[in-house]
Structure formats: C-alpha cells, structure tokens
Amino acid sequence: MKSLRRITAAALIAYLFLATSCADSKYERSTTAMGTVLTVTVVSMDREAADSAVEAAFKEIDRLENLLSLWKPESEMSVLNERAAEGWTQADQEILDLLETSLEFSRLTEGAFDVTAGPLVRLWGFHTREKNHLPTPEEIKEKKRIVGYRLVEIDSGNDAVRFANEGMEVDFSGVAKGYAVDRAVKIMRDLGVKNAMVNLGGNIYAFGSPAGRDMWNIAVRDPRSIENEIGVLKIKEKGVASSGQYIRFVEFENRRFGHIIDPRTGYPVEGEVLGTTIVAPDALTADIMSTSVFVLGPDEGAEFIKSQEFEGLIILDNGKGGLLVKVSGGLRDSFELFEADEIAIEYF
Ligand code: AMP
Ligand code: MG
User: Fold this and answer.
1) Measured between alpha carbons, how far is 102 from 271 in angstroms, rounded to an integer?
2) 343-347 and 323-327 as β-strands: parallel, antiparallel, unpaired?
3) CB of 285 closer than 6 A to ligand 1?
4) Is the Cβ atom of 152 under 6 angstroms away from ligand 1?
5) Which of 53, 95, 208, 236 has its CA at a distance of 20 to 30 angstroms from the CA of residue 215?
6) CB 147 within 8 A of CB 114
7) pLDDT bucket at 342, cuts 50 / 70 / 90
8) Using CA atoms, how far apart are residues 322 and 65, in angstroms rounded to an integer?
C-alpha cells in the first residue's frame, strides 16, 4: 500500500513537472500587421531564443507590408502600379516572383482568382467604405475592361513589368498574408525554431508540435456568427486559410455584399457558400485557394480541390438556418465537427 502511494506520488510529481514545463515552454505574442491581428506561438524551453525569433518574424512581416501595401503610396508596389501602364517598368525581384506565382494561380483557376481585381474591389468600396451607391452595370463594365490577369506582361530577362491598359493595378490583398506567413516561418526555421505557429488574420502555418500534444488544433469558425466554432482541424507542417464574406463587407439598399469578387462577372460572390477553409502545403497556396474555391462555388470548388494537391472544407447554407459542411476525403481523420443538430457533414 505504502509503495503504491509512493508510486502514485511520484507519478503525480512527474505529471505536474511535465504539465508545468509544457505550459512554460509556450511563448506567444500578438501585434497588428497588414490590417489584421498577427499572433506567433513558439514552443521552446529557451525563452530568449523564442523571443528573438518572434521579433524576427514580426520584422519580416513589417518589411513585406512596406513593400507590398497599396495603402502606402510610397511602397514599391504602389509605385509600380503607378508606372507600369506607361511602359516596361523595372520591378523588385520579390514582387516579380510573387506576381509570377499569382498569375500562375490566376491561370490555374481560370480567373476565379485574379491578382488584377483591384479596380473592381475599389469600385465596390471595400477598401474605403466611401461608396454610397450600388455600382451600376456601366461602372462594372468599365472596370472589367481594365481587370484581367492576361493584361499583365512580365519580361523576366529584364526584371520588368508592363500593363496593357491605363488604370490597371496589381493588388496582392488575397496573397500577401499567406506569403508573409510563409516568409516568417522560413525566418524562424533558419533561426533554429522547431515548433511554432504563425497566424496572420486566419492565415496560418504550423510546424513541429505544440506543448503536450502532437498536432496543432485550428478552430474552424461558424460563418453565421464567427465568435462560435463549428469544429477543429488537427494539422502540422501545413498552411491553413479561411475565406468568407462575414468580416469585410459593405451595405447598399439594405443588402450586404462581401469583399470577395467574382472577377468574371464583376459582382461580389453571393450564394450558398458561406465559408471555405483550405489546408495546403504552404500558407500562400491556402490563402489564394480559400478565396478561389469561394468564387468557384460548391460543385466546381469541390472538383477543383479534388484535382489539386490540397484539401478543404466548403461550408454551405442548407437553406433552413443550418449548415452543410463538405469535407474533402483527405481531411477525414483531421477534421472534427462539433456535434450540433443543425450542422451536417458530407465527404467528397
Ligand atoms: P482573402 O481575405 O484572402 O479571402 O482575400 C480577399 C481580398 O482579396 C479582398 O479583400 C480583395 O482585396 C481581394 N479579392 C477579392 N476578390 C478577389 C478575387 N476574386 N481574386 C483576387 N483577389 C480578390
Ligand atoms: Mg485567402
């Protein structure tokens, strides 16, 4: 009896030690970046090293915001947009690479994702919220004339870019956050970090393990009321991103329009898809693809996911106040739906 008690006590001490050391090893800091919340979590016993890695990640994302933001008229990207319709314009190597990648995805999605959609996004007033009327069909037609990924030319030999039409712009709003997360992860890995998660406004990459567990838990929000969660994704060495019309939107004539535009029609996407979540090998792919699948819709979106090297969830309005969550086969073991009467799940 005595020895059993001793063993139990020893086990308890060991457990407490493990629990405290796990708790102690989690180091987390948040800030604002790229117009949203940035949180970096590092799991390491070396607090000082964790802190300088987080600092380096913050700095890298800040650097990218200064390079790519269209909110800053002096950013390299703003200057390039200003000049590229006049003729071949020299561009920063990193901008060229990101532009090449974005254009590849625009071709792959046949324009559902379009890195030149900026003028349409502006027309609807998502950036400024100054718009006071529903855009007219004429206004939309006029903007559609200057939107099109095929109208961007790149001369890789000379690191130059040219736009076919005046008024065009490259807007990295749907790519930059994912790209920034991947860059921050690269910087932290180079500094020797083994376990960490970067979350920039829902654009996530997680590697290694969190304290006390093997996989990182990523909450999947309820697109009807985002303070609630409908389930959890368990991931590691993956990028995750979610898109929806629930955070950024404008209202005209008592109707709500979300910030994701179908560049092929010029109108914000409306329909039964309320949210998409993509799990991909990197955060950039997840970022672009969550927006793309949202535009493609439930059937084409599911077909597209099946044809590519990533997985995803498509959350649909079931028309009766409930949800249907369509889940790609590869997530069968890593997505757990919380039980709720009005939420059904279906695999594709
Ligand atoms: P995300 O938040 O990643 O879903 O990206 C949405 C942002 O990308 C919007 O706020 C717009 O600035 C921009 N955007 C909207 N629709 C598209 C589209 N179809 N293709 C590319 N960018 C878009
Ligand atoms: Mg996205």
Assistant:
1) 25
2) parallel
3) no
4) no
5) 53
6) yes
7) very high
8) 38
Give distance in angstroms: CA of 243 to centre of ligand 2: 6
Q: How many CA atoms lie within 13 A of 148 on its CB side?
A: 13
CA of 292 to the centre of ligand 1 (A): 9
Give the residue among 242, 200, 235, 229 at the shortest CA–CA distance from 216: 235
The alpha carbon of 185 is separated from its chain's Cα centroid by a whole number of angstroms, namely 14
Distance CA 282, CA 292 (A): 16
3-state SS, 57-107, equals HHHHHHHHHHHHCCCCCCCHHHHHHHHCCCCCEECCHHHHHHHHHHHHHHH
Non-local CB neighbours of 1 within 8 Å, separated by 6+ positions: none
In this structure, the residue with its CA closest to atom 12 of ligand 1 is: 173
With residue 223 as reference, give the H or E element that holds it.
Answer: none
Q: Does the beta carbon of 263 sit less than 6 angstroms from any atom of ligand 1?
A: yes
As a whole number, the mean pLDDT across the chain is 91
Is the model's pLDDT at 330 over the cut of 90?
A: yes
**Atom of ligand 1 minimally distant from the CA of 112:** 19
Structure confidence at residue 251 (pLDDT): 73
Distance (angstroms) between ligand 2 centre and the Cα of 141 equals 25
Residue reference for tokens 């901008």: 95
- Measured in Å, residue 63 CA sits from the centre of ligand 1 at 21
What gap in Å lies between CA 209 and CA 190, rounded to an integer?
17
Structure confidence by residue, pLDDT tens digits, 176-215: 999 999 999 999 999 999 999 999 999 999 999 998 899 9
Task: Report the predicted TM-score, pTM, of the whole model to 2 decimal places.
Answer: 0.91
Give the ligand whose atoms come closest to the C-alpha of residue 201: 1
